[in-house]
Amino acid sequence: MIASIMETVLSPFTFLLLFALSSCLGAVGVIISQSLVRMAFWLIVSLGSVAGLFFMADADFVGAAQLLIYVGGTLVLLVFGVMLTASSPYTKIEASPGETVIASLVGLLFLFMVAGTVSRIDWPGTNAAIANVTPASTSGGFSDTSEGATLRPLGFALLGVRPDQEGAPGYLLPFEIASVHLLVVLVGAAYLARAKRRRDVA
Amino acid sequence: MSGDSLSKWLMIAWLLPLLGFVVEIFFGYYSRNPRRSKAAAWFAVGCIGTGFICSVIAFTQWCSMTGAFDGESGWLAARVHAHDADDNDADDNDADDNDADDNDAEHHDGHSGHDDGEAKGHDSDDSSPSDAAGAAEAPAEEEAASDEAAVLREGGHLLAVAEDEGDDHSHGHDGPKGEFSGVIYTLGTFGGITLSMDYYIDSLTLVMFMMVTLIATCIHLFAMGYMSDELTDDYVDHFAHTADGKHVHRPGRFYRFFAFLSLFCFAMLGLVLAGNIFQVFVFWELVGICSFLLIGFYTERKTASNAANKAFIMNRVGDFGFLIGLMVLLTYFGTFRFGDTKVDGEVVEQGLFSMVTRDATGNFVRDDITGEVLLTDTHGHALTEGGENRTIPYMLLVVAGLGVFAGCVGKSAQFPLQTWLPDAMEGPTPVSALVHSATMVAAGVYLTGRFFPMFVQEVLLTIAYIGCITLFMAATIAVVVTDIKKVLAYSTISQLGYMMLGLGVFGWGAGLFHLVTHAFFKSLMFLCSGSVIHGCHHEQEMPKMGGLLKKMPITAITMLVGVCAIAGFPLFLGLHFSGFHSKDAIVASALAFVNANPTHFLLFFLPLLTAGITAFYMFRLWFYTFWGKPRDQHLHDHAHESPWIMTVPLLILAPFAWLCAFGGEQGYLYVLITGNDPSHLHDGVQAVTTGGLTLPGHEAVHAVHSQAGWLAMIAAFSGALLAYLLYGVGIVDLDRMKAQLSKVHGFLLNKWHFDELYDSLFMKPAHKVAAFCAWFDKAVFDNIVHGFAKVGIVIAQWDRVFDEKVVDGFVNLLGDSTKSIGNSLKVVQTGRLRQYVMFIVLGVVTLFAFVFTTFPS
Amino acid sequence: MSDLNLYLYVGAFLFVCGVICMATKRNGIGVLMGVELVLNGANVNFVAFSRYSELKLDGQVFAVFVIVLAAAEAAVALAIALNFYNNHLTIDVDRGNKLKG
Questions:
Q1: What is the pLDDT of residue B240?
Q2: Which of A103, B427, B689, C78 is least surrounded by CB atoms within 10 angstroms?
Q3: Alpha carbon of A177 to those of A160, A184, B459: distances in Å?
Q4: What phi and psi, each to the nearest 5 degrees, are found at residue C8?
């Protein structure tokens, strides 16, 4: 019984729900908390949960990238920003309550709209596919990868080869553009953030 | 040697003054001290002097090419000696004559002694006694002829037409022509017309070249002294006044004067060298503009600028005729060239001169049927075109001749265009010397002589009468004029009249002979007068002078030489003054002409009378100036002889003025000039022409020569004697005589009222017409224009209203509305990030809502 | 409710949370965090469609690119924030209203 309960509890769907809830909670925490550090903490929670969601969706590489880049890179960067810009007397910088209320109302409106859209759509092809799909490996044939092993196809796709889908376009050019883009960003960020003589504010 | 090298030398002589002009005008001003430097003058003298040397070299080449001095058989020597043989009296004298004459004729004695021409000249002298003693006329001539043929075979460029030799003898001119013609540079071809710079060289060209360059060199030297008061930065012109009555101060213009002189020489030499009538016209105008520049050299003087304008405008009147003549010639002959164009001795294109042929009677060959003048080839056969003979109507040939002569009338100051020349005395005296001797006025006579083959009888008679009227009228005026330069100016007009008369009565050689001799003695006299003026501190009125003989002996003596030369005095031992020979030649030609045509007796008696008047007024000038007691003691005290740079040219020119015509019509100069005599008159035949004229041949002229000479000599001596009695001795009271003859005196003093006549004939009507035009302009045209302007203003005002209200209003509305929209929209742009996010979200929501409501499922 | 829908709801919720975060925070870095949330919400959708539709691998590739771009964006935005802070001694985005209409 306990085992069955455990099996039910520890089923993928349970994890899915868990990750979904934690990510949503993290997001709400980001909104609610006023301190930057807490916001950063809640963001970590939210993004980490999203990474879990990715794993649950068999996107192991994307999930790993999410963890490495977002949680490991971007957030560290944000924390750096927090530390660099924290002015000494922690003056509270927060919006007026009226604004918050209006923003929340508008946000809810938006949420309802999107959620309504999602719920109203019956994904027929998708639902049919769900029944027998074993993700990302059915049409493989190129390699005998186990479930969720998307690393190799992704690598090939980024190098312009598509073993999983004959005739589909590769992503070599966007990949290269992205690399150049990153270089530019690197240089630009270094330029913008370089140490300058602080200008006195009138 | 060929015509090429000959023309090269002459071209150097021609172009050097142009180089001088360019250098002086462009670099003279930039030299370190342009106002005080004589560099420009020395450069100009160098150019023209080198030009003289080049001319002499060209002359020697020409001599050797034509065989002029080939030992005793040279044609020039042969002709001189042939005449010697004719003369029965004083053989020894003639031999001496030849010796001295030789040196004179060649002009290089003492200048360039290395010329082989001189050596040849001496050769001929050595052989002259035997020749004179025994040689008959015919053998010498035959030998000369065979020599020519030899030269022809060798040369190929020599235009002396071998095939015409037989004709030559029958027509009685026995020297080789020795013409060379060719193209220097082709300017362009327009349809059938080729405009080119040609050259046409014959003995006349060479004589003119040497004469012009020699005289110009002397005048340049003289001017260096005469114009030396221009060598300053502050020249005070005592004859020009500013508005407040002060003398004009201006920088000296020494270098500019010499630049103009150089250009003048270039233009004249180009005119002489020119091988076609159009080129002559071009340089003709260039001479005109140079004279304009030089006569008006003292531009600050109103009289000077007026005189320059007058000279220029008078010349335009003549040049108008010239242009008409050119049009006629081009229309009917299709060429402007004088000589034939030859390639390897074959005529490829005929020139003007060979296209008309005179028959034995001196008339042009005419078409039997139409009576028009035939155009012929070089052999005298009619040219055909489309099966018909090419002809030109006789009247048009007259028009062409009169037209070209009209140009000469203007340029040589003949009646009725003579009035500019006395006014031209406003220029500096060296300019007067140059204008009145070698260049400008000589150009007219030269062209008349050069174009002689194209003149028909009627034109020649006109020329003779014009010359006759001019010479008499100018001489009478010269008697009363007291300005020393104006006396010379009128004498120039008079002498030019002589030349024209000579040409007109078929004395071609005589006219041009006088041109050369006159150039020498007139330039000498002008330079002397310049010396006097310079010595008397710019006093030109003769009544204030007198007794200057002791003060300025060199000037006085050289002047006396010139006076004797123009008066035409003979002297012992055949050392006659040059004017004696040349004037004799003209008078003899006139006498022969009048003998043949008694109705035209004036053509002889007026020149004869004028010969006496000439002697009278020239001696009057000399006595007035140099003889007797000083009339103005102050002037006399300050008078002085001129510096050497001014007297040396006088001393150079005086021998030429005296002896250049040595030997007369048997001398080298005359023989040389007439080497290419175009007056095709049968020797000894009195040819009857259709114009009702009888033309005397050379023999006829020769027959009356001594008679004419005696008459002219008596006239000259009596004129000189009268002058001596009146002005040298003073037997009558001149003032009383003047009062008694006041009407005649006034008439002459007012130059026969020509200026008044032209004033009332042309100036006043022109003023009337101009006044009417001015009125018409103001009353009619101005009102029309003003009306247009007013309409324009009204339209513009309406346009302004439309512009301001409609166009501006629309544009302003556009701008204002844009601005107000922007103002109302800018409140959205709050600069608050959160608000923008809200906008975005709301926008997206709205968009979705719109999509969902519009496309439900 | 299928798994896909769950993913989509989560994505939508994250997206909206990001938007609200952007709309309520005056702190510049807070706004940045909102942007990260928005991008994550989109990424969740990509991965979900990659798993449950014919989109397959392309969805994941897109997600990777979005992550890369988000990282780049974060770097540049942080540099801008630092600059802003250097000039205004604060990172209150309301102070950057010099260009308001």
A1: 76
A2: B689
A3: 13, 10, 103
A4: -65, -40
Contact status of B834 with chain C (Cβ, < 8 Å): yes
How many angstroms separate the CA atoms of B243 and B273, rounded?
47
Q: C31 at the B interface (CB within 8 A)?
A: yes
Indicate yes or no: CB of B831 within 8 angstroms of CB of C96: yes
Residue B366, H or E segment: none
| Cβ count near A97 (within 10 Å) | 9
- Indicate the burial class of C14 (C-beta count within 10 angstroms; 0-12, 13-18, 19 or more): buried
Q: Which domains does chain A have, with CATH numbers?
A: 7-87 (1.20.120.1200), 142-195 (no CATH)
Q: C1 CB near a chain B CB, below 8 Å?
A: no
Distance CA B392, CA B272 (A): 28
Distance of CA B78 to the CA centre of its chain: 33
User: Region B11-22: what's the mean pLDDT?
Assistant: 88
Cα–Cα distance for residue pair B495/B489, rounded to 1 Å: 10
Would you call B591 helix, strand, or coil by DSSP? helix
* Nearest residue in C to B822, CA atom: C101
Q: What is the DSSP letter of B380?
A: S
**CA-CA distances (angstroms) from residue B480 to A130, B716, B775, C76?**
143, 18, 44, 114
Q: Are C33 and A30 in contact (CB under 8 A)?
A: yes
DSSP conformational letter for B663: T
Query: Does position B644 have pLDDT exceeding 80, yes or no?
Result: yes
Q: Are B58 and B13 in contact (CB under 8 A)?
A: yes
**What's the helix, strand, coil split of chain B in %, to 5?**
70, 5, 25
DSSP string of B759-772? IIIIIHHHHHHHHH
Q: ω before B17 within 30° of 0 (cis)? A: no
Contact B384, B404 (CB under 8 A): no
CA nearest B614: which of B479, B432, B806? B479
Q: Give the end-to-end CA distance of chain B in Å, rounded to a whole number.
A: 116
Closest residue in B to C24 (Cα–Cα): B834
- B841 and A110 within 8 Å at the Cβ level: the answer is yes
Q: Note the pLDDT tens digit of each residue in B100-158.
A: 334 343 343 333 333 333 333 333 333 333 333 333 333 334 444 444 443 333 333 33
Q: How confident is the model at residue B32 (pLDDT cuts 50, 70, 90)?
A: low
Domain boundaries, chain B: 68-175, 488-749, 756-846
Tell whether B824 is within 8 A of chain C (Cβ): no
Task: Give the integer Cα–Cα distance in Å for B291 and B294.
Answer: 5
Residue A83: C-alpha distances to residues A90, A190, C97 (Å): 12, 17, 24
- CB-based contact (8 Å) between C100 and chain A? no
Which residue from B547, B727, B530 is spatially nearest to B637, judged by alpha carbons?
A: B547
Which of A54, A164, A193 is facing C57, going by the closest CB pair? A164
Which of B829, B833, B841 lies closest to C31 in CB terms?
B833
Instruction: Report how far residue B289's alpha carbon sits from residue B312's, in angstroms, rounded to the nearest whole number.
Output: 7
Q: Is the peptide bond before B678 cis (omega within 30 degrees of 0)?
A: no
Write out the H or E segment, with its range, that includes residue B346.
strand B346-349
**Nearest residue in chain B measured CA to CA from C18:** B837
pTM: 0.62
Which residues on C lie below 8 Å from B828 (Cβ)? Answer: 101
Tally of CB atoms within 10 A around A60: 18
With residues binned 3-state (H G I as helix, E B as strand, rest as coil), the percentages for chain A, rounded to 5, are 70, 0, 30
What is the CATH class of C3-89?
mainly alpha
**CA quadruple B430, B433, B434, B437: dihedral, nearest 10:** -170
Taking contacts as CB-CB distances below 8 angstroms, the residues of chain B near C25 are: 834
- Of B450, B68, B489, B70, give the one whose Cα is nearest residue B271: B450
